[in-house]
Design brief:
Number of helices of chain B: 15
CATH topology of chain B: ABC transporter involved in vitamin B12 uptake, BtuC
Radius of gyration of chain A: 25 Å
Strand content of chain A: 15-25%
Radius of gyration of chain B: 20 Å
CATH topology of the largest domain in chain A: Rossmann fold
Order of helices and strands of chain B: HHHHHHHEHEEHHHHEHHH
Largest sheet of chain B: 2 strands, antiparallel
Number of domains of chain A: 2
Strand order of the largest sheet of chain B: 1-4
CATH architecture of the largest domain in chain A: 3-Layer(aba) Sandwich
Number of strands of chain B: 4
Largest sheet of chain A: 6 strands, mixed
CATH architecture of chain B: Orthogonal Bundle
Chains: A alpha/beta, B mainly alpha, C mainly alpha
Distance between the termini of chain B: 18 Å
Oligomer: heterotrimer
CATH class of chain B: Mainly Alpha
Distance between the termini of chain A: 56 Å
CATH class of the largest domain in chain A: Alpha Beta
CATH superfamily of the largest domain in chain A: P-loop containing nucleotide triphosphate hydrolases
Helix content of chain A: 25-40%
Helix content of chain B: over 70%
Strand order of the largest sheet of chain A: 6-9-10-3-11-12
Strand content of chain B: under 5%
Structural class of chain A: alpha/beta
Structural class of chain B: mainly alpha
Number of strands of chain A: 22
């Protein structure tokens, strides 16, 4: 056997993994060295999470080889993976909320004395683990009372408490603010210097370049390439992820149609806010207008949408519809005013998984008609067929349960649900997230044509390019506060980013 | 910090307050009848020992995020089996009692396996378990039969004299012993902490590498064991094998745990709370008996009401927690 | 086709039970006409199954929303007790007796629905409260006694016959048709299935999920009350202790056999009726074979576990490869 120190820490070769009907990974290579931060990049559906799950024993690979620390590995469970030194910290922090920080770090590995758990040792060990990360917290505190950032660090401390050699951080920064991200990076660099291999999965480009040594890019389950971060220009990384050549010019809105706004706004928010989720803001939406709502994750975009649609209630300010003040207590009341809302989390907030495409489409219309005025079956079939055709929904027939459709087609069904009820205002929260490029373009086209027909659209997206391309006007939020409003020619990626950046100082 | 600890313990504190209030009420109301006496106090534990033991197992199950509706049925089955083994077959207690305890634990294990490995809803599996156990009890022995052998000698050997003619009877002693063991299990063993973890967030527990399967099956095994022990205690207490023993015990046990501050969603709660919950149960029962004119059915209704009250209290606290902090 | 797929197993099971009786119990399939009324084991099975059938129809809706109602047995006891008291202690006409006892049942359902829908209490626990307190209430009403009554008009519910068939069978048929129309020709069915399948998404699409839940528990309790009247008229008495005991398991079992998933979503009334028939056929078979009645409890427990296992995806995945290995 060769000297293990000359081999990379982790060497995956030709990894394949299929699920019924989908080839999730096809011959993927992935190499991580000791003492490096290795970014794993790719769009949604690229195979990042499948690869991670194969690596951590959640899934078993169908083919290929895995060499870790000079040994063949094939972990069957997360425990297996942990035992050989592969630890993972997931995006939605996996801790036990009601137990203390100390217990969360030591759970399952506590030592006993005379048949009794040694609580003093648990405490000491947890303090040591947190100190290693350079973090001072009261380890007796209940995890539920800690900020997400601290919870993340607790999860890392737990991962390191066993002798982890490879640490996988799966989208760790998505809920953190700038300062917390910096602190996390500090911890990552420290661990890297201790010789750990770190896999960093994220969709924030800045962060990739700030902390990573090398980058592996996946696309549609295929291995695209492995690059030194320092010698891979940002634009090239993007084009590799997206699989098409892009030039900087594409990121500017070239041919924006100007929107002719009416006299009174359809909807006018005056100092509308909600304690703890949105600071009071002013917002106007006109008929026939696509209003973009931009900002980082957690900036208050979704919160605004929820207030508008009556999911949450504001505790300050006035909302005016056609100039008349309204108060919405529930989505139903918003729907009575002809609002529609495609929520961000399609799976848990939008689709009714086991009901058919037809029923999913008809639902909102039926709600508007009331309990007793049943939308006849003939009308239902007609609507379903119409929208399947108009939105190019790929389904064998209208009676297919929606859960069997792909993400993009599910999204189109949800759009159809709202279009069938003829809304005046349609709120789209990340309508193109996690769907393929083709469907994404179709949805963007639809948005434009709906606005052309006079519908007001509130468009929320993390994708700046998409935001710039589709919006007539962009409102930028940061830290649950409106920081700026851009119109027509002012709208560009850099303007939005500057707006966000300016607010930081 | 202190305020936070206090907040976290509101349900438990409320339980303690209710308990003291009820006791003071009984003590004042029935002062002349000696409600406030050590003898009556001991009887709280003596009369409800089998409930308390079953509630211990139930608390673990609820902490793990599950529910066990089979405990009453198991009490009936064990009670009957014990009578048959000792009366009809002349089995000595040292063989008969471990045998029935093993049987209860085994039933629990089977239910745990169904719940965990085949992902069947806990309430359904344990409801079927309840029917199975109760049905088997009735099949084995349709009527209640007295147990004449061994019971008296066990009861006299196991009791603890407290002086001035009072003694801690065997069933109370078994209950208190079980309670102390359960405290150790919950707070000073990995198993106990894993129960909290599994109930707190099962997905996290899995990803943390905790033995979720073993914990879940273990919890139902423990509950089955406790139910069987409760059945033994019942038989010792009544000197009989009764197929209808423990009818509706599952709700009383759930009520004791919930009133004691254990959250039905799992992951939060204390065995000490359950202990106080059982005590409240005993006080209500005794009060109604002292009252004399009220039907014993009022116990059920009052407990149902208290259960409702505490569930609403839990809901209120959870709703407050969900609201974002500013 | 979909319906057949869902109902395949209960139909086969029922056929097996009938086949068993065809071979081993002579006269099982005989139907006689006495006094213009049909008699026979088959009719008897349907007649005896009526209370469970009625409750299982309501339970189907509750389960379709992802809930459960454990209190049906207690509601039966309460309805019987209320009716018996009104018949013996007051001069109320029979129609009023029926209306009042059903209204009381309905209100208890609204109570359950309020706890589940408005307060968000886990259905098992919410209905468990009434399961136990309810029997206490029934006991209080009847003072712990079995209240007997004698009123032929009222007794028609459980003992009468119409066009040769027991009235109970007509009652079930009528309820079945009414509920089917009510759920399929209005939006109620869609809203119930949507709520059970994904409550949050339904609420975001404007479905008033709280009202949906209130409604199903109220319907379920109402039907439990009706079943309570049948049982009471059957024995001409209100027995607070025994009326409707264990019936919640029968009803849940019937629903599960009938193909409605306990996790909620799609529901099948016909399947539930079939399930209830199967259970009663099984019970009758056990009794006619001379097996002690206690065994039915054990058999039902085993059947429900078996049915759930058959429907469990996990179990199939666990057992099928091994099964194939054995058969190959």
């Amino acid at each position: 056997m060769s000297d293990p120190t000359h081999l990379p820490l982790l060497q995956l070769r030709g990894i394949s993994k299929s699920f019924p009907g989908v080839k999730a990974l096809a011959e993927v290579d992935f190499t991580v060295r000791r003492g490096e931060v290795h970014a794993l990049m790719g769009e949604n559906g690229a195979g990042k999470s499948t690869l991670i799950k194969v690596l951590t024993g959640v899934y078993q690979r169908d083919g290929g080889s895995a060499l870790f620390d000079a040994h063949d590995i094939n972990p069957k469970t997360p425990q297996d993976a942990q035992r050989i030194g592969i630890s993972t910290v997931y995006q939605e922090v996996n801790l036990i909320p009601h137990l203390s920080v100390a217990e969360n770090i030591c759970l399952g590995r506590q030592r006993s004395k005379f048949g009794f758990l040694n609580w003093r040792e648990i405490r000491r060990r947890a303090e040591k683990a947190m100190a290693r990360l350079g973090i001072a917290v009261d380890v007796a505190e209940t995890v539920a009372n800690c900020s997400i950032a601290i919870q993340q660090l607790v999860a890392i401390a737990r991962a390191l408490d066993i002798d982890a050699k490879l640490l996988i951080l799966d989208e760790p920064t998505s809920s953190l603010d700038e300062k917390e991200v910096e602190r996390l990076f500090g911890v990552m660099r420290k661990l890297k210097d201790e010789g750990l291999g770190i896999v960093f999965v994220t969709h924030f480009l800045d962060q990739v370049y700030a902390v990573s040594d090398r980058i592996t890019v996946l696309r549609n389950g295929n291995f695209v390439g492995e690059y030194e971060a320092a010698s891979l220009p940002r634009i090239e990384l993007i084009s590799k992820m997206m699989g098409k050549e892009l030039s900087e010019a594409d990121f500017k809105a070239a041919d924006r149609k100007e929107h002719q706004r009416g006299e009174t706004p359809l909807l006018h928010l005056e100092n509308v806010g909600r304690r703890g989720s949105l600071k009071p803001l002013n917002l106007e939406i006109f008929e026939g207008e696509v209003l973009g709502l931009s900002g980082l994750l957690g900036s208050g975009r979704t919160e605004t949408a929820r207030l508008l649609f009556g999911v949450d209630q504001p505790d300050s300010g006035t909302t005016r519809l056609d100039g008349n003040p309204i108060k919405l207590k529930s989505p139903r009341q918003a729907m009575e005013r002809k609002f529609g809302f495609c929520p961000e989390d399609r799976k848990t907030e939008a689709i009714i998984p086991n009901l058919s495409v037809r029923e999913n489409i008809v639902l909102a219309l039926q709600v508007n008609q009331g309990w007793m005025r049943y939308v006849s079956r003939a009308k239902q079939n007609e609507l379903a067929d119409k929208f399947i055709k108009a939105l190019n929904i790929k389904t064998p027939h209208a009676e297919q349960p929606i859960r069997l459709l792909s993400g993009g087609n599910q999204q189109k069904v949800i759009l159809a649900r709202w279009l069938a009820s003829h809304p005046r205002l349609l709120i789209l929260d990340e309508p193109t997230r996690g769907i393929d490029v083709g469907a994404k373009l179709e949805i963007e086209k639809l948005v434009a044509s709906l606005a052309g027909e006079g519908m007001a659209i509130l468009f929320i997206s993390s994708d700046l390019e998409e935001m710039v391309r589709n919006s007539h006007r962009v409102v930028v939020l940061r830290d649950r506060k409106k920081v700026c409003e851009l119109q027509g020619g002012e709208i560009s990626e850099s303007a939005i980013m500057h707006a966000i950046a300016k607010a930081e100082s | 910090m202190n305020l936070r600890v206090l907040k976290r313990n509101i349900p438990f504190a409320a339980t303690a307050v209710v308990c003291v209030l009820l006791y003071v009420f009984g003590a004042v109301q029935f002062y002349d009848e000696n409600f406030f006496s050590l003898r009556v106090f001991i009887n709280f534990f003596y009369d409800n020992a089998f409930l308390g033991i079953a509630a211990i197992g139930m608390t673990f199950v609820i902490l793990s995020g599950g529910i066990d509706l089979s405990v009453g049925g198991v009490v009936g089955l064990v009670s009957v089996l014990l009578a048959i083994l000792m009366e009809n077959h002349g089995a000595p207690p040292v063989i008969a009692i471990p045998l029935v305890l093993l049987l209860g634990a085994g039933l629990g294990t089977v239910m745990g396996v169904f719940v965990h490995y085949f992902a069947l809803p806990a309430f359904l599996v344990t409801l079927a378990g309840m029917f199975f156990a109760r049905g088997m009890a009735l099949v084995l022995q349709y009527e209640s039969v007295p147990i004449t052998k061994h019971v008296d000698s066990i009861n006299s050997t196991l009791s603890l004299p407290l002086g001035s003619g009072l003694q801690l009877p065997s069933s109370a002693l078994i209950y208190l012993g079980a309670f102390v063991l359960a405290l150790w299990l919950a707070h000073f063993t990995r198993f106990g902490r894993n129960v909290y973890a599994v109930g707190g967030n099962e997905q996290s527990a899995t990803l943390m590498g905790l033995p979720v399967a073993r914990t879940r099956v273990g919890v139902y095994t423990l509950s089955g064991f406790c139910a069987a022990l409760a059945g033994v205690t019942y038989s010792l207490y009544t000197s009989s094998g009764n197929p209808n023993a423990g009818m509706g015990l599952e709700l009383d046990a759930i009520a004791a745990a919930v009133i004691g501050g254990t959250l039905l969603s799992g992951g939060v709660g204390y065995l000490a709370g359950t202990f106080v919950g059982v005590l409240i149960f005993g006080i209500i029962q005794t009060t109604i008996i002292f009252q004399g004119t009220l039907s014993s059915w009022w116990t059920k209704i009052v407990v149902g009401g208290l259960l409702l009250l505490f569930i609403l209290l839990q809901k209120g606290i959870q709703a407050k927690k969900l609201r974002p902090k500013n | 086709m979909n319906t057949w797929h869902k109902l395949k197993w209960p139909i086969i099971a029922l056929a097996l039970v009938l086949l068993f009786n065809f071979i081993f119990s002579s006269g099982f399939f005989q139907v006689e006409i006495k006094n213009g009324r049909l008699y026979g084991s088959l009719i008897d099975i349907l007649h005896r199954a009526a209370p469970v059938m009625l409750i299982s129809l309501g339970m189907t809706l509750v389960i379709a929303t992802g809930g459960i109602d454990l209190s049906v047995g207690s509601v039966m006891a309460i309805a019987g007790a209320v009716a018996a008291l009104l018949l013996t202690k007051t001069e109320q006409p029979v129609a009023m007796v029926i209306i009042i006892s059903l209204a009381v049942s309905f209100l208890f359902g609204v109570w359950n629905g309020t706890l589940v829908g408005l307060f968000g209490i886990t259905p098992i626990v919410a209905t468990l409260i009434l399961m136990v307190s309810g029997r206490g209430i029934a006991q209080l009403l009847t003072d712990g006694q079995i209240v007997t009554f004698d009123n032929s008009a009222f007794e028609f519910i459980g003992r009468g016959a119409l066009l040769g068939l027991p009235f109970t069978i007509w009652l079930v048929l009528f309820t079945f048709i009414l509920l089917t129309v009510f759920t399929k020709k209005t939006a109620v069915g869609l809203f119930i299935e949507a709520t059970g399948d994904n409550e949050k998404a339904s609420a975001y699409a404007g479905v008033n999920t709280n009202v949906v839940k209130m409604l199903v528990y109220a319907i379920c309790s109402l039907l439990a009350g009706l079943a309570g009247l049948i049982v009471a008229t059957d024995i001409k008495a209100a027995d607070a202790n025994n009326a409707g005991q264990w019936i919640e398991l029968d009803a849940i079992l019937a629903v599960v056999i009938g193909g409605t998933a306990l996790t909620g979503g799609r529901f099948f009334f016909a399947g539930s009726l079939l399930g209830a028939t199967l259970i009663q056929a099984l019970t009758t078979t056990i009794l006619t074979r001379g097996v002690p009645v206690q065994w039915t409890l054990v058999v039902k427990a085993l059947v429900i576990i078996a049915v759930c296992l058959l429907q469990s995806e996990t179990f199939r995945r666990f057992i099928l490869p091994r099964w194939k290995k054995v058969t190959v």
